[in-house]
Design brief:
By secondary structure, this protein is an alpha+beta fold. It folds into two domains: 117 residues, Jelly Rolls, CATH 2.60.120; 30 residues, no CATH class. It has four helices and ten strands. The strands form two sheets. A five-stranded antiparallel beta sheet has the order 1-2-9-4-7, with no helix packed on it. Strands 6-5-8-3-10 form a five-stranded antiparallel beta sheet. Strand 5 and strand 6 form a beta hairpin. The longest helix has 12 residues.
Length: 208
């Protein structure tokens, strides 16, 4: 019994290591599906765990009249490996976050100002949407197409959190019309006519 007790005490008295407590991203490296490599703990500071960007309004002077301020791992190294991140959404009157998907994360939205019509489409093509008022929240399951629209005459804002430090983003309209995929192919896969495809490509910066 005594040898077991001494072994237990010796393990308790070993120098502790905090390497598993966190893995602050070394942004000089490369992002991989499992995240960034960790910074040396000796170079980690409190600032790695603090992000002030969510308190700054985004610039909504653009084609969608909306702005997303991310607190993903690239902006907030402390979330690396922790399975979380966040962002701020600013929507001017009639602003829209177009149909998009986050391949690597589910999303949790909280409206902090104004009203936002938000929804998602399931893989069975069922639509779930609702106009949310200040204080309301909504979930968007991982990988599903979803959107947020401010149809009101006043600005709206929301804070969103994600189940990944790097949730990924693909906006459907930009994926289709902001690239160099030949228009004939886009017309085939979208059932749109040539004039409409070329109009959208011109609007969103695509070619082909």
């Amino acid at each position: 019994m005594l040898p077991i007790l001494f072994l237990f005490l010796s393990l308790l008295l070993l120098p502790s290591s905090h390497a598993a407590d966190f893995c602050v991203a070394d942004l000089t490296g490369h992002l991989t599906p499992s995240g960034y490599e960790c910074k040396e703990e000796s170079s980690v500071t409190t600032d790695d765990f603090v992000f002030s960007g969510l308190g700054v309004p985004g610039n909504t002077s653009n084609i969608i009249k909306a702005a997303v301020t991310p607190a993903f791992v690239a902006q907030f190294p402390g979330v690396n490996g922790l399975g979380i991140s966040a962002a701020r959404l600013d929507l001017a009157p009639r602003g829209v976050i177009p149909l998009h998907t986050h391949p690597a994360a589910s999303e949790f939205l909280v409206v902090t100002q104004g009203t936002i019509c938000a929804g998602f489409i399931s893989t069975a093509n069922n639509v779930y949407y609702k106009t949310l008022k200040t204080g309301d929240s909504m979930l968007f399951p991982q990988g599903l197409l979803h959107f947020q629209v401010n149809g009101d005459g006043t600005k709206a804002m929301a804070i969103v959190s994600f189940s990944s430090p790097s949730p990924g983003l693909q906006i459907t309209a930009f994926a289709l019309f902001a690239n160099n995929l030949p228009s004939a192919l886009v017309e085939t896969v979208t059932f749109l006519d040539d004039a409409e495809v070329k109009k959208l490509k011109k609007l969103l910066g695509g070619t082909g």
